[in-house]
Design a protein that fits this description.
By secondary structure, the chain is an alpha/beta fold. It has one domain: Rossmann fold (3-Layer(aba) Sandwich), CATH 3.40.50.150. It contains eight helices and seven strands; from the N terminus they run H-H-H-E-H-E-H-E-H-E-H-E-H-E-E. It has a seven-stranded mixed β-sheet. Helix 5 links the parallel strand 2 and strand 3. Helix 1 packs antiparallel against helix 5 and helix 3 packs across helix 4. The chain starts with 5 loop residues before the first helix and ends with a strand.
């Protein structure tokens, strides 16, 4: 995979800040995710070459680029992005991937429409701790319904508290562990790994 050009990185940064100014809680971050966080997220997910990988809230594609760099075929990526500006950017940057402009809470319906009811790998860049509790619950249920047995979700947060509602995650068969802390990210981030039991 070739690295993004300076123009592509500039376009991504401008888009991030434009969307942050419009909807700070929707973007949920004060800076784009850094390469060390992307590395930690993909390492915790550990996707195999033939896995279909779903990315929730990919934004400007920092984690997407790391997934591709680690050998995930662009054709095996399903990028679910609610923001239409980010979705349009992703379609231009990753034309071989499937970009769906929709809510992560509708993931089971999205995957069913794609003929892929269950997946082994979900990576989430959603700002879950900034979302309303009902929205966090809806995403938790959607992820649990979409993961195959033994499947993995990786999710980061800027808090040391787990990003998914704890009791609902347990009832949904999502077993969590803290996979690491990336102190060099701005702000520092905690990487969580959930396994569908």
């Amino acid at each position: 995979m070739t690295s993004p050009s300076r123009n592509q990185m500039h376009e991504a940064a401008l888009l991030f800040w434009r969307q942050y100014i419009r909807r700070p809680f929707g973007v949920g971050a004060v800076m784009p995710s850094g390469p060390k966080l992307a590395r930690a997220m993909v390492d915790a997910l550990d996707p195999k070459a033939n896995d279909i990988v779903v990315e929730l809230g990919p934004g400007t594609g920092a984690f997407t680029r790391q997934l591709i760099a680690d050998g995930v075929a662009p054709e095996n990526l399903v990028l679910v992005e609610l923001d239409r500006h980010f979705a349009g950017f992703l379609r231009r940057q990753f034309p071989r991937s499937t970009v769906v402009q929709d809510s992560a809470a509708r993931l089971p319906e999205i995957l069913k429409a794609l003929g892929q009811p269950k997946v082994r790998c979900i990576l989430s860049g959603l700002p879950l701790r900034s979302m309303k509790l009902n929205d966090r619950r809806a995403v938790t249920r959607a992820v649990a319904a979409s993961l195959a047995r033994g499947g993995i979700l990786t999710q980061f947060s800027y808090f040391h508290l787990p990003p998914l509602p704890e009791k609902l995650a347990e009832r949904s068969g999502l077993q969590r562990r803290r996979a690491g802390v990336v102190l060099s990210n701005v702000p520092p981030a905690v990487v969580w790994r959930y396994t569908k039991t």
